[in-house]
Amino acid sequence: MDILVFFFCWATCHTPNLIIASLSSSLNYSVSSLLVRWYQERGIQRDKALRRTLLRFYPLFLCLAAGSMAGMSHQRVSTRGRCATLLLSLFLLSVAPRAANSTINIPSKLKSPPVITTQPKSVTTFSADDISLTCEATGNPPPEFRWVRDGLEFDPSKDPELSVFRDSGSFSLTAKDGPIQQYQGRYSCYAMNELGTAVSNEARIVTANTPTLQKEKKINKKVEEGESVVLSCNPPNSTVAPVIHWMDKRLRHIQQNERVIQGRDGNLYFSHVTVADSRDDYTCNTQFPSARIIVLKEPIKLTVTPSNSVVRNRRPQMMRPSGSHSSYLVLSGQNLELECIAQGLPSPKIQWIRKDGVLSESRTFKESFDRVLRFVNISESDSGEYQCTATNTQGIVTHTYSITVEAAPYWIKEPKSQLYAPGETVKLHCKADGIPKPEVTWSINGNPLSDIDPDSRRSLKHGVLTLKKVELSDTAVYQCKAANKHKSILVNAYVYVIELPPQILTEDGLMYSVAEGQTTELACETFGSPLPNVTWEGESWGALVANPRMSQLVDGSLQINNASLNDSGQYTCTVSDSKITITAELDVLTAPILDFEDKRGKPATLSCEYLVDSRQDVPQVQWRKNRQKLTESSDSDKYMIDESTLIIPEVEEEDEGVYTCEVITTLDMAEGSGSITIVASHHLSSENPPSPDRPDPPTQVLMTEPKDRSITLNWTPGEEHNSPVIEYLIEFEETGSERNEWEEHSRVSGSSHRAFLSLKPFISYRFRVIAINDIGKTPDRNPEGVCSDSIDPGTLVITWKELDKRSFNGPNFHYKVMWRKVLGSGPHWHSKDVPSPPFIIKDVGNFSAFDIKVQAVNEMGEGPEPKSMIGYSGEDYPLEAPLDVGVLLINSTAIKVTWAAVNRETVRGRLQGYKIYLMYYGPEEGHLRQENLVGQKPKNVSVVITDSNEEKKILGDLQPYSHYKLAVSVFNYRGEGPQSEPLTFHTPEGVPGPPSSLQLDSPSETEMTLHWTPPNQPNGNLKGYILQYQQVDNEDSLVQVEKIREPITRFTLKLDPRSRYRFELRGYTSVGEGQPIIREGATTLDAGPPSNISIMAGETSVNLTWVSKERQRNVGFFIQYLKKDGPDKWQRSEKVNSSQSFYTLQGLQPGSQYRLKIDFNSTVWEKEILTAGARVMKVRDGFVTESWFIGLISALVLLLLLLLILCFIKRSKGGKYSVKEKEEGQIDSEARPMNNEAFGEYRSLESKLCTDDALDDYANSNSVQTEVIMDESLASQSSGVRDVPDPETLENSPLNPTTAISHHGLPNSAALLD
After folding, report:
1. Burial readout 95-124 (b: 16 or more C-beta within 10 A, e: otherwise)
2. Rounded to whole angstroms, how far apart are CA atoms 348 and 319?
3. In sequence order, which ranges of 976-1051 are alpha helices (DSSP H)?
4. 600 — pLDDT class (breaks 50, 70, 90)
5. Buried b (16+ CB within 10 A) or exposed e, 492-505
6. What does the CA dihedral 1051, 1056, 1060, 1062 come to, rounded to 10 degrees?
7. Nearest-angstrom CA–CA distance, 1154 and 1148
8. Is 293 exposed, middle or buried (0-12, 13-18, 19+ CB in 10 A)?
9. Of residues 475, 478, 474, the one with CA closest to residue 429
10. Region (Disordered): which ranges (predicted)?
11. What is the number of other CB atoms lying within 10 angstroms of the CB of residue 342?
12. Nearest CA to 576 among 556, 551, 560, 549?
């Protein structure tokens, strides 16, 4: 079953363009060649003899192509399998269409205004870089140049450090040991001659310090399994964004995936960690390409402890960016990256949407495992809101991004340089757009229009500058400038007022050649003032205005699009209102299409024919296969090259590919290409009947009935090979799609030879038709991405991208892996069937080259013959270090390192380059000598990486007067080899850095004491300091210089108290003076307390504010205050400083009047105030507040209390509540009755202490009644009498308290108390 492939471009138009190319795989191989056009303008256009030779040879070439195709058809029908010799001719034809020129070509004999041809470009430079600003211009007379920096005139010729180019405005600065900050700024170049002044675009020079890494502590992180972790990189500060890589100690990249990802800030983010993440060499490598340095950070140790319980899943949370919303402002045309890194367990999946529209498929790409949404060439239409959603099984989290796209100014319409005759009206159109809207301004010869005297003939309206009735004096260069907050752009256009007759500058009788279907231009360049008007006519076309494929350009040239054979002929260009004409001849050529076929194993010859200008040397011919150079010795006797002919003695499967012939001269290069495709051949014999085989592919595929959304396919069946076709399968592929896979469209029966296809609009389709019989279908394609991914030494790992199941085409699908050594193994292939990648082969040697290929196989058979690739076995660490390492001191901050190239056999891999380890041990001091470096650790180690072909390197930004060690090693993909023996050197003395600090202290009105600290980088033996000071407010004052010849840290000056001074202090060594530290200041004037005090009174406090006078010395004082209706005694506040400007006086009384004053030698300020609030009235003193009265009252109260206590006690013991026995007969015989005399005595005592009248309230109280009830109860229990007495009896009964007597002669109340 073979395949026929054709291409079809479908669009929404009613007459779509159809491009059909068929490649028949029934051929042993087929070659498609290109007619190569090699441009030699003067050689072909003006050498008519060469042109006639070419035209005579061209029909012969077409005849050869036609004969080849006829022979090909004959072979297909009647002589299948015949042997033929292949001749592939790649014919190089010289054609030279003239490029359009939008500028005016003024003849050299006339004067011309200046035109800037090379604009200066902005640069960011480091101290070790060269600085160059280029400004080139043309004009007659030759223009002179001047520069403006930051709005001020700048003459580079007066700076001895700058080199100015002759006859040019360009200048450069060679890298040196010294500051370059003084060259930072915005530059504009002016080119001027007597006809005007042109102005360049503004260019910036930005100077930056070389990034350095400060010493940092080692970081050890310990986390539990399942947690999220962020490893911070913290790259050195720099104006240039670094390139950051996370690597291990073997310089292998840390593997990143959905769980582990590097953020745009350089940090390494772990969504959750596993035990396998534990390692001690997470290293952030920071590369600054423009500074040509790599800074190695300290390795980070991460320890992940296993969880004691089951690791719990966690819902997603945003790691970067934080929060729920972020905003971005970006300029149109730039790239933007939105980042979305989330933590969680399991690792969240990321999805991106546009909330207010649809994501642009052409400008947005998802990278870093969907963690980054990248916008390429962003436009205003991309402004809006975007959302990132992180999802796992536990939940979701979102983040919204608001993008605002603005635009730097860009031109919508630019003014054009032009020649004008006196009296004409000139209109210069200048229109720009941007976000925000740019402001458009005009200048003449570099001078703003607002600074030029008005002219009634000149007007400006809506961005159009109009000049009426121009004169010769109006000749000038006009500048239009558009600027907004993002950028400014400028365009020059000259107005040249001159009177000249019209003329045609293009040569008459030029001959042009163009391939059919291409675009060409016939030149007719004119000159004159006013501008001549031209018209074109064709030999067979007449006037060309009505031809839609032909258009006349602004410069007069005729442009012909989609050239056809009928366009060949002579064309005439005529200047209107004159008899000036030229003619041009056009030939439209058709490139031949050559098809060949031949047997596998037979020779093939590829011939490269070319024509070059006879004045050129013999060109060099270079053959390439798949863009790789071919030589006779590249693969034994595989290829033979005889001048411009490539011979393949035996065509094999691996010869399939694209062959290119390159013809190279000293001026130009041209090439032509053709492809060879190898497929299986079929052998037929009358003696041995053929067995059933797969059918040949259909041929003569035609597309008919094209409609808006459908076409009809027709084809002719191929050879069935003794097995009838069951069905035809139509498959399609969307060209330009990311999927790049064939998809099934439809199937039709084997008896049908046409199919109706429904299509979608505005999509480019690629179709193929497959014939299927009972033999079945083998895989129709092989896996892609075949490569070697070998890491371990001596191991070859072959991997590939697995095919989709839809491409298996049958059961028992697997892969056939084939390999052989490139050198020394011969043609034999080793093979192995495997179900999936990767396939590992061991013990194959270090870094050995192998031919590898992978073929798809199923039960029906093998797929197409795969293409072989070159792969290498794993590398091992290099064995040896570079030899002959040397150091040459260039100056105090730069060295030149040299070494000998390493033996490639000891590299044991692909040599990637060399690493120079520069170890800094500190400045040369008394305790640090060269002999004391043994055993000491360097303070800083920097690594510089070079290319593999370098054997020397200049290192800059070293510290002067310091000790260093240097070692060099070699590295490959596997890692780094041993370092060379450390080479010790020290840099010479240099100029010091600026002092670390400078403080000004004024002890009096005429003195200023400067206190400073020495430079952090003395860069040598500090001899002393140079102090320069000058009055700032007096331009005529001289700079005073004090040379301090010892390294002290303070100095006192006598100064004018009325002036302000600028101080510059710098250190110096024996080499010279260093950089200064600059301060401005003035002496402090003597003063007193403030007198301009503002007051705001409260209830208990008052706020005092004042303004301290400039330059006045701080004075301490007290605020005194006196209450007017209080004691005549002044009180004072705490000490107040005049520099405070504010003070709150507290402790006052509301509604009171106070006197405030400040005494300083004399009373300098006094004020009366009234506090807010109601006044507190004072209570008049009386005897009730006297102590003797309070003591008397207290004694009386205490005495009364004691008397009451005694009354209660006596009352409770009295007979008032005694109980008499109810029945006298039941009295215990042992009781001793009490006579009335005894009881009467008790009552008498009671009446003396507490009378009944005095205690009536107490006798009738509830407490006494309660006691009576209790006594009655006890009495009834002790008497033993249960009968209740009658009232008369009760009246005289023992219960009467006046007569009742207990058994023991005591009151019952007393018995109760017992």
Report:
1. bbbbeeeeebebeeeeebbbbbeebbeebb
2. 12
3. none
4. low
5. bbbbbbbebebebe
6. -40
7. 9
8. buried
9. 478
10. 1275-1314
11. 28
12. 556
Angle value at C-alpha 485, between 483 and 491, nearest 5 degrees: 20
> At 475, phi and psi to the nearest 5?
-60, 125
0.85 cut: is pTM over it?
no
Written as one letter, the residue type at 1091 is S
Q: Is 858 left (phi over 0), alpha (psi -120 to 50) or beta?
A: beta
End-to-end CA distance of the chain: 131
The C-alpha atoms of residue 523 and residue 504 are separated, in whole angstroms, by 10
Residues with Cβ within 8 Å of residue 907, at least 6 apart in sequence: 878, 879, 970, 972, 977
Note the pLDDT tens digit of each residue in 444-459: 999 999 888 888 899 9
Read off the pLDDT of residues 139-195 as tens digits, 9 standing for 90 and up.
Answer: 999 999 999 999 899 999 888 888 898 888 999 888 766 677 888 899 999 999 999
pLDDT interval class at 745 (50, 70, 90): confident
pLDDT at 1082 over 80: yes
* Residue from 1081, 1245, 991, 1313 nearest 176 by CA: 991
Whole-angstrom Cα distance, residue 1118 to residue 1135? 5
Give me 91's structure tokens: 């014919």
Any bridge partners for residue 314, and if so which?
Answer: 345
Beta bridge partners of 140: 112
* Backbone conformation region of residue 636, classed left if phi is above 0, alpha if psi is from -120 to 50, else beta: left
Q: Is the pLDDT of residue 92 over 80?
A: no
| Rounded-to-integer distance, Cα 986 and Cα 958, Å | 10
Q: What is the 3-state secondary structure (H, E, C) of 934-970?
A: CCCCCCEEEEEEECCCCCEEEECCCCCCEEEEEEEEE
Using CA atoms, how far apart are residues 1175 and 1155, in angstroms rounded to an integer? 17
d(CA 385, CA 353): 9
CA distance 718 to 27: 13
Q: 665, 680 in Cβ contact below 8 A?
A: no
- Count other C-beta atoms under 10 Å from residue 563's C-beta: 23
Structure tokens at 809: 């085409």
Tokens of 289: 């390409």
Place of tokens 């073997």: 250
CA atoms within 13 A on the CB side of 1270: 13
- Specify the pLDDT at position 860: 78
Pairing of strands 913-923, 940-946: antiparallel
pLDDT tens figures, 489-546: 999 999 999 888 888 889 999 999 887 778 899 999 888 887 788 888 887 666 665 6
**Range with the poorest average pLDDT among 47-61, 257-271, 1136-1150:** 47-61
Residue type, 5: V
The phi-psi region of residue 1020 (left if phi > 0; otherwise alpha if psi is between -120 and 50; otherwise beta) is left
Q: Residue 436: is the preceding peptide bond cis (ω within 30°)?
A: yes
Secondary structure class of 1070 (helix, strand, coil): coil
What tokens does 1132 get? 């004072």
Q: Are 1169 and 1153 in contact, with CB atoms under 8 Å apart?
A: yes
Rounded to whole angstroms, the Cα distance separating 352 from 399 reads: 10
Contact 10, 649 (CB under 8 A): no
Q: Secondary structure of 902-931 in the HEC alphabet?
A: CCHHHHCCCCCEEEEEEEEEEECECCECHH
* Cα(1300)–Cα(863) distance, integer angstroms: 138
For 699, phi then psi, to 5°, come to -125, 175
Coil/strand/helix, residue 847: coil
